[in-house]
Specification:
The structure is a homodimer. Chain A is an alpha+beta fold. Chain A has 4 helices and 7 strands, in the order H-H-E-H-H-E-E-E-E-E-E. In chain A, 29% of the residues lie in helices and 27% in strands. Chain A is globular. The first copy, chain A, binds a DNA duplex through helix 2 and helix 4.
DNA sequence: TTACATGCAAACTGTTTGCAAATAT
DNA sequence: ATATTTGCAAACAGTTTGCATGTAA
């Protein structure tokens, strides 16, 4: 068991997003929001939690990741492999994809721009643009 | 107007790619390469084949789509939903994604450019760039 | 003839869900 | 008190695979 009110205001963060700060969700939030930008799959986060000796079920990890995403605390990244990555960096940015190990990396350089997009068709508008740059070994 | 006999050298096309032109593969090739650009999932192509009264198993559809892709006759497109789309347009282009129905569309306008990409990290080089433009209802 | 392709079903991966028991407010 | 959350297992979608049969060359 951890301290209740000592650490960073993680429970506030969750509460402010309308998410009830349960023990499991705080555990996962701690692992996710410890500062650095992270990309995790549900499996990876599940394993992380277990190696921190916090028994959170995989279903709860999935539920929590989806809730955090819906609340804007995470961003889902679709990759060419069929696994969803959850990115703690919710700002507008793009990704490298490494087919060799199915991993993704932020493109931290914010100067990437996309030009020449045609207008969105009939009754639609552009919502988000995902750029995935495949990196292969040379 | 789907009077399409195997007049054009579909079997040649397959053979040239090192793929043995079996009845099933020719059926699928006919459905795929009838001229227009197409994006199909394995399920969709399977359904197409069946409504053309050609009993091809789903496993064979998958196998065939993968082979065609490996041979460069198709291009796999990863979407934010967990389904693989196979695109008959193998040239360099990008896609719209419609979250409402999980469909994708080519961005036919060839003038889309991406600028400001940083150099690829350590021992890697940029292989392919996928751009997915999410279209939402307005 | 013989290596390769097919179909089926079963395995498999990633994800979601139903429900009883546990917990936050 | 009570509405929500959890965990498990089972359901689920999409995809792959093992193996006996069938087929192209």
């Amino acid at each position: 068991m951890q301290q209740h009110f000592a650490g960073p205001p993680l429970s506030e963060k969750l509460r402010n997003s309308g998410i009830r700060p349960t023990r499991q969700r705080l555990t996962l939030a701690e692992l996710l929001f410890d500062g650095g930008d992270k990309h995790v799959t549900a499996e990876q986060l599940h394993a992380l939690a277990h190696s921190a000796r916090e028994n959170v079920s995989l279903a709860t990890v999935y539920n929590t990741l989806k809730q955090f995403s819906a609340a804007g605390l995470l961003r889902e990244v679709a990759t060419p492999c069929q696994t969803i990555y959850f990115d703690t960096n919710t700002s507008d940015h793009h990704h490298y994809f490494l087919p060799s190990d199915g991993e993704i990396l932020d493109i931290t350089d914010a100067s990437v721009t996309i030009d020449g997009l045609p207008d969105a068709p009939h009754g639609k508008r552009v919502g988000r643009i995902d750029v995935i740059v495949h990196l292969v070994d040379e």
